[in-house]
Automatic annotation (TrEMBL):
Residues 33-136 form the Endonuclease YhcR N-terminal domain. This is Endonuclease I. Transmembrane segments: none annotated. It holds the Pfam family DUF6359. It comes from Kribbella steppae. InterPro entries: Endonuclease-I (IPR007346), His-Me_finger_sf (IPR044925), YhcR_N (IPR045939). Residues 1-29 form the signal peptide. GO terms for molecular function: endonuclease activity; hydrolase activity. It comes from the Bacteria. Residues 135-154 are annotated as: Disordered. Keywords: Endonuclease, Hydrolase, Nuclease, Signal.
Length: 374
């Protein structure tokens, strides 16, 4: 009975406080919140936050994505492609987690989604999560935002009906001039490990953004669908569509020329893993799927109804100036062997949100390739 008498007042006080709005049960940190929510809730409470690792904060407005100085901090964002520090949460990595989540020891975490529990409060005089007590995740890459209703109207469609529906959707785009392409490519093809550089498509070399031009070892604007295949040149339209325009070394670009794509051939200077012969070119294996998806995007986007040629893939090489590119069977095999990666997904998203406002459907839905071209 003594225990009952001692407990009853505490129970009554608890009920009264709860009724008055003063809950005595600690706030649960089990349900993760977004980075944007965490940034807006810097109130000293405990929270669990999920986001993508985008680098290491080294100052209030500085986050580095390579050459990490230590294992003490990381920055989270709601998108792996985020570059604005105002949209990042600075996370303190306490000593128990530095060997597993510190970026100097684990640089491969950049671009990965993790979940962290800690105290919502300033870190580096910036919105932060400090005194961290739990980390998890790090095994999945950012798939890119769900396009939501972007593909509305494709439901249940296959073959030519699907192709027609996609053509209508992706033809709604903002068009760039050929000069505007330079700056766009510096963004879309930015090296995630060095924001001063771009990644060259075929060769894979990381090169300074400022070295664009026409001199040897500069990078220039490669038309993956060769502009002579359909004779569209560099006029606004297919000639400036950055879904298939990529940075490439001037000499490697020249080695590819307007060749079709196929396996085989001899090694290409300055392009490790690339091969070329008299009628075809093959890029390094890591981007063969990217090339295929760009070619197939062009075939859906340009159907001859906007003053340009009807572009189509075929199973031939030596297509010359005809509005065709091959080899379709090889391109399909490349797409299957090299599915979309984080770099390609980010590129698609940047083009959609910042530049052309249309998407490459075969990055979002690789399965549509065999539906349209069985």
């Amino acid at each position: 009975m003594l225990r009952s008498r001692a407990f009853r007042p505490v129970l009554i006080v608890s009920v009264v406080l709860t009724l008055l709005g003063f809950g005595v049960t600690p706030t649960s940190a089990a349900t993760p919140i977004s980075v944007s929510t965490a940034i807006g809730r810097q109130d000293g409470s405990t929270a669990t936050v999920s986001g993508y690792v985008v680098g290491q904060p080294t100052a209030t407005s500085t986050v580095v994505r390579s050459n990490f100085p230590n294992d003490y901090a990381l920055a989270l964002a709601d998108s792996a492609s985020q570059t604005s520090t105002s949209s990042m949460l600075y996370v303190q990595i306490t000593s128990a987690f530095r060997s597993s989540y510190g970026l100097r020891s684990n640089p491969g975490l950049v671009g990965q989604k993790i979940t962290v529990t800690g105290t919502l409060g300033a870190y580096f005089s910036h919105a932060g999560l400090t005194n961290t007590t739990a980390f998890s995740g790090g095994g999945s890459s950012d798939p890119g935002p769900d396009p939501g209703d972007y593909y509305a109207g494709t439901e249940g469609k296959t073959g030519s009906a699907l192709k027609a529906a996609l053509h209508t959707i992706i033809s709604d785009q903002t068009k760039l001039s050929y000069d505007q392409v330079w700056n766009a490519l510096k963004d879309t093809d930015q090296d995630p490990a060095n924001t001063n550089n771009v990644i060259l498509l075929y060769s894979g070399r990381s090169q300074s953004k400022s070295t664009n031009g026409g001199d040897p070892n500069d990078w220039n604007r490669e038309h993956v669908w060769a502009k002579s295949h359909g004779d569209f040149g560099t006029a606004t339209g297919p000639g400036t569509d950055i879904h298939h325009l990529r940075p490439e070394d001037v000499s490697v670009n020249a080695a590819r020329g307007n060749l079709d794509f196929d396996n085989g051939g001899s090694a290409v200077s300055e392009c490790s893993g690339c091969t070329v012969d008299s009628d075809s070119f093959a890029p390094r294996a890591a981007v063969r799927g990217d090339v295929a998806r760009m070619i197939l995007y062009m075939a859906v986007r340009y159907e001859g109804d906007d003053g340009f040629a009807n572009l189509e893939p075929n199973n031939s090489v030596n297509n010359g100036s005809a509005p065709y590119i091959g080899k379709l069977s090889v391109l399909k095999a490349w797409a299957a062997a090299d599915p979309p990666d984080t770099f390609e997904k980010r590129r698609n998203e940047v083009i959609y949100t910042t530049y052309q406002h249309n998407r490459n459907p075969f990055i979002d839905h690789p399965e549509w390739i065999t539906s349209i071209w069985p």
